[in-house]
Amino acid sequence: MTQDDTVQKDFESTKADVKAAAEDLRDDARGAARHMRSEAEKIAGDQANAARQRVADEVGSLGGALRKAARDLEAGTIQEQAMSRVAEGIADLSDNIATADLRQGVDDMAGYARRQPVAFLGAAALLGFAGARFLKASDHTPSRADDLSEDWPEYS
Asked: With CB atoms counted within 10 Å of each terminal CB, which end of the chain scores lower, N or C?
């Protein structure tokens, strides 16, 4: 065997070793990626479930407030009937949110909107007003009236 044959054989052996090491590294990387994906899905699912429960609680609170408001209205009036329907729909929505998965909840909400469009639009409007009030209440920027009141001296 010549020296060139020995070098060629060593080169082929090293090439095979590098190829095997690269394949092992690729397999390890794939396994780590699968594990990280699984962990990320679990964490995302846990966070989605916690958020879903918070939303269900908030929607349930809104339904309870609407039921109370409906009881305060004169029995049998159109306003009382409409408020009661909206409250029932929101209570159903809250139950569905609490028990269904996220994708199922979206499908249920879409189905509810098709079955009860007036109640759904009423609930959406109420949620919009409640959200606007919440955002307005959490805004800490001073109003123009607050700015002007600083210019006036206080008299006792």
From this structure: C
Give φ, ψ of 143 to 5 degrees.
-80, 170
Tokens encoding 75: 């029995």
Please say whether the beta carbons of 56 and 98 come within 8 A: yes
From residue 123, how far is each of 2, 63, 78, 117, 127 by CA, in Å?
88, 9, 16, 10, 6
Q: Are 87 and 119 in contact (CB under 8 A)?
A: no
Residue 113 CB neighbours (<10 A) = 15
> Across the 156 residues of the chain, what is the mean pLDDT of every consecutive 10-residue run?
79 88 92 92 85 86 87 87 88 82 75 88 84 74 54 55
Whether the pTM exceeds 0.90: the reply is no
